[in-house]
Specification:
48% helix; alpha+beta; membrane; 133 residues
Length: 133
Amino acid sequence: MGSLDVIALVSEVVAWITLVGGGLCLLAFAFARMADGTWEPTDAVLVDAGGDDGTRVRWFAEGEFHERGLEPDEHSHVVGTETQPAFYRRRTPERLRFEADSPVPRLLGTLAVILLVIGVIATIVSTLAGDAA
């Protein structure tokens, strides 16, 4: 067994593992996007409630005004102005976030693309090394 045969064999194993893993990540990405739902853009207004309430955020969605407290981890998304671009969920307009998409589907999509690209490259290497041997 020559070195090209070993390269072809290892590349084929890597190709199978990464293509299957990439396909599973792509499937998980699709389910995560569906579960996340559709988020519509809106303008959120920050109001300093004073006292123990802290900062409150108010927005208009689906014909109604909504209000909730600003979470501690959301302060990094808030710029110094009173009005912020935000997104509410179409089916449940009382939910609001300051990012257009969730990090989970973004992570799964990126991982799927990386694994599928590695799988395609490994398939090409395996084919070329197998033909040359």
